[in-house]
Every structure is written in C-alpha cells, then in structure tokens.
Task: structure prediction
Amino acid sequence: MEISQLVDQHYESVFRFAYRLSGTSHEAEDISQQAFLDAQRKLDTLRDPDKVRAWLFMIVRNLYRRQIRDRVTHGEVALEVLVEPVDQKRGSDKQVEQSLDSESLQQVLNELPEEFRSVLLLFYFRELSYREIAEQLDVPIGTVMSRLSRGKKQLRERITPESY
Amino acid sequence: MDCQTALEILDCVRPDSDDLDLPEMADARAHLESCDACQETFASMQSFDRAVVDVVQDVDVPSRLRSALPGYSRRRRAIQAAVSVACALMVGVAVWLQSPTQFTEAELLAKLPINLSANAKFDTSFEFALPGPWVANRQVKIAPEILGIDMDDDPGHDAAVAVFRYTRSRNAPVAGILAAIPANRIAPLPSAVSFALADSQYITKDGRRPVAAVWRERDTVYVCLVLGSAADLEQIQRNLSTAAA
Result:
C-alpha cells in the first residue's frame, strides 16, 4: 500500500481519534502528522491490511502516551490524566448530567484517565473487539472489560438518558 | 450466570457488530436469551452505544491537514497552489471587470467638453445633487436640462453636466459648466472639500483657455469650468460661499 493512499483513506478518522484522545485540535494535528510519519516508516510491519485503521489508532495512542510521559517529566501534565475515574457514589454530587453532543462527550472523555479513554475510544470507533483491544494494549481481557465497564458507566452517568 | 455478570460481559459488545457471536460470549448470550430484564437492559445499553458511536465521529477535520501529511505530492501541492492562484486571479479579474474605470483630475478636465451641443440628456446612471448654493443663488442660472458625458468605453454616462450663466451687475455674464461625477471614479480625490476652497486652474480646451475649479462634496466630485478669467471664477466662489454662509 502506498503511503499517499493510506493517508488519503484514513487521515480523517486518525485525526478524529487523536482529537478525542487529546481533547484539542492542535494536539490532534501534531499527533496525526507524527502518526503518519511513523506509519510510513513502519509500513512493512503492518501484518493485516484489513486492520490498518486499528494499527494507525495504536500508533496514535502510543504517540499520545509518549506525549503525556514527556509532559509529566516536565511537570506540565494535568492531574486528571493521572487519577482514577471518580467513583459513582463518591463523585455523584459533583456530576452534572449533560446532553449527548460532541462537546459534552469530549468533556467527559477529558475527565477520564488515559487508560480508560483509550479503551473507550477503541471500542466506540469500532475498530477492535474487546479481545483485540486487550491484545493490542497487551493487557488481560479482564482489565479491558473492567476499564470499558467503568468508562461507560461514567459516560452514562454524565449524559442524560433522554438524549439518546 | 447471574444478571450482573452477564451484563458486564455484554457491555463489551460493540453495537451492530458480530461480537455477540464470539465464543467467549456463549454463556452471556445464553443468559440473555432466557432473561427478559437483561434483554431490556442490553437493548438500552446498545442504544446508548449507538448514539455515542455517532457523536464520537462528530469532529471537524481541518482542511489544511491533508497537505501537511506524508504522501501529499509536490505535483498535487503545485496543482493546489495553481488552482488557488487561478481562483484569486479570477476573483481579481471579476472585481476589476466590475470596477468602473477611474480617472485622474487632469483626465477628467481633459474629457469635459465646453461645447455641449452634441451631448445627450443625462441617462441618470448615477445619482447626484447640484450643490445647494448653486441652486439657491439668484445670480446663477443653471440650464434645466442636465446632459451626460461618456468618458470611457462602457455604456452609460460617466458624468453629468449642466450649463450655467453667472450674471453680474455691471459686467457681461460669465458662462460655464458645472459637472458632477461619482467620487469613486476619480483617483486621487481632489483635496478641496468645497467650491470656495478649490484652487482655480487654467486649462487648454479647443483652442480656448477656460479656468476650472475641482472639489468634492460627500460622494461626488464637482468641476466648475468657466469661460472667463480666474478672477471671474473667484468672484463666483466668493458669491456662492457668502450666499451659503
């Protein structure tokens, strides 16, 4: 597969995934650019062309994690990426229900730790089954199920049931 | 399998996918088939997930992004640049075509005739008003018919002109023309903002030496062309400015 073809076919979904992961457009642009440069370099390691989008998402996710690590090193990282998600009972008084739209979804995603956000996004971008997510992230299936369950619970609690 | 365990597993089923058919889903699937409550909850979970799947894709992709990514060829970049330049040129040409021709003050004076016998009635291609003092002053008699002057190749009159006569008590009357042209047709605009402040200048026209004054008021540039001397013109200027005051 030619890199130009790969980019043409997938740059929009890569950007969208990067945006949902990072929460900002400029970070998503930076990550998308770097992701395709990495993809160009590693193109011969792509084993299953049918899973190319999932492969690109994993590159994006790794770049984003690296970015967070660098920011932690430089003391710039926001606290919410390090902490566990707020437990339903403990945090219920602080939670405000929102309607399901792009911004409110992003707001809830931003408040989740990266590990939960990545799993949720891989699930909702529908590229990988939970088993494949576990394989790609190199974590046990139970961990993916748990992160998925807790992440979705957060979403459901924050987004009004009437809106979907 | 109890309901809670089944639902935790079923929460991993992507909406509208084959995930429910995966072998590891067999027990949860069996529970679902036999439990009405879980069927209802599962339907609700799937409905929520479908809504999120739709919204999660709702992200505007910057139009400039593609050109910043690998595989965007120089040729493609060049084509895009050429298209941009072509579009800009087309817009420029369109604007230029729609923009009326502009004249300098000297060109305007050169194109104003002193013999208006061949000129047609003004076609009202633009709106203008005669300056107030000119209309109100009893010593200035403006001919009732406004004539048009065509100064370029485009259809329509570019300037409107009226013949006037300024009567003096002891001397012979002075004849002249008062012309009006939209200010956007003259560049640069004259600095004088009233007839009284306009300098007089002699010009050569058809072998004669009329004297002219050019000024602008609001969105119109006016020219007063007098077939006489600079002193005659200055007298009219004084008279009209006094009357106006």
Q: What stands out?
A: The longest strand of chain B covers residues 174-182. The beta strands of chain B are 140-142, 147-149, 159-166, 174-182, 200-202, 211-217, 220-226. The interface with chain A takes residues 8-9, 11-12, 14-15, 17, 19, 22, 24, 45, 47-53, 55-59, 61-62, 65-66, 68-73 of chain B (CB under 8 Å). Chain B has two domains: 3-98, 105-244.
